[in-house]
Amino acid sequence: MRIATAQTFDAGIDQLQERQRELARTQQQLTSGKRVERASDDPSAAARAERALASEVRGQASQRALETSRHAMTLTEGALGDASELMQQAREALVAAGNGSYSDAERAGAADRLAALRQQLLAVANRGDGDGGYLFAGQGGNQPPFVDALGGVAFRATAGRVNVASDEALPRSIDGQAAWLASPSGNGLFETRNASSAPNASGTWIDAGQVRELPVFYAATSPPAVADPAALTYRLDFTSTPTGPAYSITKNGAATALVNVPYVSGQAIAIDGMEFTVQGAPASGDGFEIRLATPSLGVFDTLDRAIAELKTPLRSNASMTQGVQQALSDLDGSMAALQSLRSQVGEVLNHADMVEGRIAAHSLSAQTERSNAEDLDMVQALSRFEAQQTGYQAALKTYASVQRLSLFDFLKV
Question: Is the overall model pTM greater than 0.85, yes or no?
Answer without folding.
Answer: no
